[in-house]
Amino acid sequence: MKTKSNLKNIVNKNQIPLGPFHPLLEEAEYFNITVDGETVVDIDMDTGWMHRGHEFISEQKTFTQSIYLVERICGICSTSHPLACVHAVEDVDNIEIPLRGRYIRTLVGELERIHSHLLWVGLAGHFIGYDTVWMWAWKYREPVLQMFEIISGNRNHYGMLRVGGVGKDVDPASVPELNKILDTLDKKMDMIAKIANDDPVLRSRLVNVGILSKKDAIDFCAVGPTSRASGVRGDIRKDEPTDAYDLVDFNEIITKNGDVYDKFVVRVLETLESIKICRQCLNKLKIIDGPILNNVKEISAGEGIGRYEAPRGEVFHYVRTDGTNRPIRHKVRAPSYNNIPTFQASCKGIPIADALITLAGVDPCYCCTERAIRVTDKNNKKNNIDLLKLSRDKTSNIRGNF
Amino acid sequence: MKLEYLFFIFIFPGILFTSILGLIIGWVDRKVSARFTFRVGPPFLQNFNDFFKLLGKEATLIKNSIHSLFIAAPFVAFGTLSLLATMIGVTLFYGIGFGGDIFVIMYLMMIYSVMIVLGGASTGNIYSSIGAGREVKLLIGDELVFILVCLVPIIKSGYQLNLESIINFQASNGAFIGSASGILAFLLSIICIQAKMTMQPFDIPEAETEIVEGPLMEYSGPPLAFWKLNHFMMYVIFPFFLILIFLGGFNLTGLGILWFILKYVGIVVVMIIIKNTNPRIRTDTALNFFWKYASPIGLLAIILAILGV
């Protein structure tokens, strides 16, 4: 991977620029594809189109504030990041979480997996020119967002999590309604699975396309559905069960082939497993009473790690504390950071049309991956602290005007 | 040169009629596609508004492109399609020939694709170049099948090449769709039309999420307006052509009007359904399909036609 952008290379005729702004990528990212005719010979990636500095900002905030901050790392994984973050903070002091709080965390996390996978199915359909699948999948995703609205009051950023539990209880009266929505979702997922299995035209676009072998998946440290589609075991929910994952029954989905079709199958089957987990959680929430939040007064000095199986794979948060109410170091590693480079192994030697769906097949999330950048040029050297100072000066200037 | 020829070319069934009907059917396509995907769809006059608004916009020219070719391509294609519409329409609505036989029509249809290739390749943009290359590959694929399909009505009408002879033969002996070879050829021709109009599953040259509209990428303003109009005109020309060579034309008296609407809307709806229920296929899959599967079926249709089935 190059670190410095060099758009002048595009003059060369056998290089196709994909991005920084391209209909295939909803976010800013730049791939430079070298082709021979229509076959991809080489593919290169250029990062650094998104400058957000989340880790640095997090170190200026209290623990509770930084949960809301990491929730905004990604609009789709808006439970996975805060969940890994609170795991990390709780890991410092080994804080116990009440049972009801654990079930609510698991419920929200699994609902997020359902909506994220449905979102990917829709986008994958759009990328191969099948807009009907796109619209249908997103229509079926809508009830999940309604469930979120019933549970948390919000459709995308839920703000449910706190250090030591969750901030909002699930109303037992709403459980039957939530169960009803889950029942409709089951049938729709079966239908989506059938579409891909029965349609010969769709299969010709997905089966044996962009194969990521088991060895390559291990070599590139791929995580989540990307690695499980290649036959590599590994699911944080099974390996290191946190929250209520050791109390619910579900299967880890693993397929062998590693092509885009298998990634599709893994995601669809995982959605069905998630629906299963959600049902179990809702049933338990009907029975279990008790507190949802363990009030944490202070966090002692130390360091902690938090891991969670986000829809795209393992998300990892590291927090170091010094006894105050804010982290002195907060490091985030998103799953797409491991998954995106697998294109080096899976995209070479296949037509452009296939390479693009393969790129999208790992469900890349660029805003998760790129959060910070240090701007340096010859005359004007600025690091992140200078940038923050500039930003604060500007804000205080604006404030001064009122 | 008779005065009514000018009427044929410019008003009915030529430029004016085909454009307006095309824009309306384009709206039907957008509306039905929208309903397929649980959307509301555009208002009735949307296509007209788009067209006239684009006419008023600035046409940006690229420094390194071949300007004459870049500008000429959409208008030559428009002229070609106008001529096609006139030739097919006059035979359908008046039952008389308008100079040119089925081979001329096949060539004119090819010129349209060639214009897309020239217009796209003239810009020098990498996406447009790839799109133009894909258009050539698609043309190589679908052209053979299309020629085979067009031979079937020629054979069945006793080796007549004139459009009016073909339609008169069907008027006296029944439409060609009533025979086995006719059905085969008709089904193949719908797939060919899908490819010629670059609709799914054959929207390979214009693949939005891959090469960003391909050959049309650098177009803006009036030239783009005419490319869009050309596309909508094809919604009229190709179904009319199929009705002419397979479905026995129109009889615009009494119940015949109902039949006319049924035949036309039927073909258009089949095209829209195919468009909405298929993903875009790869270039190699398309060539594979046309050469390996569609061409033998086309040959089979010809053999059946020679045998008189």
Explain this structure:
The complex is a heterodimer of chains A (402) and B (309). Chain A has 402 residues and is mostly helical. Chain A is 48% helix and 12% strand. In chain A, the strands form three sheets. Chain A has a three-stranded antiparallel β-sheet, with no helix packed on it. The model of chain A is unreliable at 1-11 (pLDDT under 50). Chain B has 309 residues and is mostly helical. Chain B has one domain (3-307). In chain B, helix 4 runs antiparallel to helix 5 (102-121) and helix 8 packs antiparallel against helix 12 (283-307). The longest helix of chain B is centred in the middle third of the chain and has 31 residues, at 126-156. Chain B starts with a helix and ends with a helix. Chain A binds chain B through residues 10, 13, 15-17, 22-24, 38, 125-136, 139, 201-202, 204-205, 351-354, 356, and chain B through 33, 36-39, 126-127, 129-130, 133-134, 200-201, 203-204, 207-212, 276-285.
Tags for this model:
heterodimer, A: 402 residues, mainly alpha, 3 domains, three-stranded antiparallel β-sheet, 16 helices, 8 strands, 48% helix, 12% strand, globular, B: 309 residues, 12 helices
User: What oligomeric state do these chains adopt?
Assistant: heterodimer
Shape of chain B: globular
* Unreliable residue stretches of chain A: 1-11
The geometry of chain A reads as globular
CATH architecture verdict of the largest domain in chain A = Orthogonal Bundle
Question: What strand order characterises the main sheet of chain A?
Answer: 1-2-3
> Total number of helical segments of chain A?
16
Beta-strand residue fraction of chain A? 5-15%
Q: What structural class do the secondary elements of chain B suggest? A: mainly alpha
Largest interface: A-B, 31 and 31 residues
Number of helices of chain B: 12
Q: What is the arithmetic mean of pLDDT of chain B?
A: 87
End-to-end distance of chain A: 46 Å
Helix content of chain A: 40-55%
